[in-house]
Design a protein that fits this description.
468 residues; mainly alpha; three-stranded parallel β-sheet; 19 helices; 49% helix; elongated; RNA-binding
Length: 468
RNA sequence: GACCCCAUCGUCUAGAGGCCUAGGACACCACUCUUUCACAGUGGAGACACGGGUUCGACUCCCGUUGGGGUCGCCA
């Protein structure tokens, strides 16, 4: 079988993390089987669909590299086809006109709730004579759902799921204004697009029953459904705007690399033995729906960050500098000079092993970019007491005499000096760190001195020694 | 409330009846390395929700309980 999968977001907001993973799983499965991965924008809700949301979704997917194999299908553009199918259903007696007003329906639900019955449409117009139709009211078209027996779906993730048909009411397929609803459009589009596997969030599980019924009424084969577990917030509650339900652009802005996000998302609900860190090529080779878990998962920033740190480590210095530069220049309030850029190039290897995210990398890099005199952190200032300043003043001379200024020469000079004066290395190294970086935390101080260059390093020492 | 789904360390997970004294990863703790902070390495603590079955044998199969989640729109 030629596999065709699809990701079908509704453009009513950004692409959130759950949607991104749904897209990823569909993409992986299509790639794994050598099939096709399609994108369908479900924009039949004209009131809530926006071009901005479409843009955000497309941007998010492209940032993650989840490109579809064909141009996106816009569901609303296919409304005539949908209406045509509905007409077909009416003709065959599988659908009917319902003249209940929204208010009547709301009332019906209220009453059902009060009587503690389930809140389903009661089928008022199901078998009523169309001649009773009230004048001046545009009817909706409802699906005449089977009232006996049960509907069974063989879900590729959840297994066999059965529901009694008495639980399902007659859903609306065409609104009073003649536009198709989601439930109908999905069925028609999945069929027309040749979708063989519908991988989607578990929140669609109950929809699968109704869609299966429509497929049956149409005499079409339903795709294989695979309802993947939902992603919850760190506290186990449903992802809401308050926590976790961010657009993927937010993750980019938080300094996460797309390959880290992808790798992390793979491990949320899917696994390949104990493999934790792997490329999309490996994931493609390994991915199968049977290995997807059933239970909901929680989003864990710590683990994402840890993965991100590893991907940052493996990134080229050029890429990292390009990613960090906007943040650095924003903090600086001006573009970086060529000198500073060169320092970043030279210092990046040890900077990047310390950063979990790009903003952290920016923070870590700032001391290479700042102009003299440096501002000191509290701890650095404390480190620069009078004794420390005296020691710095002492070491300045030998350093100034160096002809070759590199990590080795600075290190041997400082070490020799410490030995000669019978000082522990830290007694000089720590004040030196404070002077050179303005902080008590930095990469190896001799490397820092080398990267800074003789002039800048000596200047920063003088700044620290000078009375403030 | 009705219906549906789920249930292994705090979190993500391995586990397809004996391989399990339940493995890995993140987080946590300790140690090593180190001028600092990281990185890295080593070690540690930490789970099969509960109760019944089935079986010679259950984390694995069945039932129930409890807990969690989802759905119940002229939204998708």
């Amino acid at each position: 079988m030629n596999v065709v999968t699809r990701f079908a977001p509704s453009p009513t907001g950004f692409l959130h993390i759950g949607g991104a993973r749904t897209a990823l799983f569909n993409w992986l499965y299509a790639r794994h089987t050598g099939g096709k991965y399609l994108l369908r924008i479900e924009d039949t809700d004209r009131k809530r669909s926006t071009p901005e949301a479409i843009e955000a979704i497309l941007d998010g997917l492209s940032w993650l590299g989840l490109e579809s194999d064909e141009a996106p299908v816009y569901q609303f553009a296919r409304r005539e086809r949908h209406a045509e199918i509905v007409q077909q259903l009416i003709d065959s007696g599988a659908a009917y006109r319902c003249y209940c007003s929204p208010d009547e329906l709301a009332e019906m639900r209220e009453k059902a709730k009060a009587e503690k019955r389930s809140m389903r449409y009661d089928g008022t117009w199901r078998d009523r004579d169309p001649a009773d139709a009230p004048a001046g009211i545009d009817p909706v078209i409802r699906f005449k759902a089977p009232q006996t027996g049960e509907t069974v779906i063989e879900d590729a993730v959840q297994g066999t799921v059965t529901v009694g048909n008495t639980e399902l009411d007659d859903l609306i397929m065409l609104r009073a204004d003649g536009t198709p609803t989601y439930m109908l459009s999905v069925v028609v589009d999945d069929h027309d697009m040749g979708v063989t596997h519908a991988i989607r969030g578990d929140d669609h599980l109950t929809n699968a029953f109704r869609q299966t019924q429509i497929f049956n009424a149409l005499g079409w084969d339903a795709p294989v459904y695979a309802h993947i577990p939902l992603i919850h917030g760190p506290d186990g509650a449903k992802l809401s705007k308050r926590h976790g339900a961010l657009g993927v652009d937010a993750y980019r802005d938080m300094g996460y690399l797309p390959e880290a996000v992808l790798n992390y998302l793979c491990r949320l609900g899917w696994s390949h033995g104990d493999d934790e860190i792997f490329s999309m090529e490996q994931a493609t080779a390994w991915f199968d729906i049977i290995d997807v878990n059933k239970g909901a998962t929680r989003f864990d920033y710590d683990k994402l960050s840890s993965l991100n740190a590893k991907y940052i480590d493996e990134s080229s210095n050029d890429r990292l500098i390009a990613l960090a530069l906007p943040g650095i220049e924003a903090a600086l309030g001006k573009p970086v000079s060529d000198t500073v850029r060169q320092r970043l190039v030279n210092g990046m290897d040890s900077l990047k092993s310390r950063a979990d995210t790009i903003p952290q990398l920016v923070d870590l890099s700032m001391f290479y970019c700042l102009d003299r005199p440096l501002a000191y952190t509290d701890k650095a200032a404390k480190m620069l007491d009078d004794d420390a300043k005296a020691r710095l003043a002492d070491i300045r001379g030998p350093l100034a005499e160096l002809d070759t200024w590199d990590q080795e020469s600075v290190e041997s000079t400082v070490k020799a000096h410490a030995e000669a004066y019978n000082l522990k290395l830290g007694m000089i190294a720590q004040p030196l760190r404070a002077a050179l970086t303005g902080s008590n935390v930095s990469p190896g101080i001799f490397e820092v001195a080398a990267v800074l260059g003789k002039n800048e390093a000596l200047g920063r020492i003088e700044d620290a020694v000078a009375p403030r």
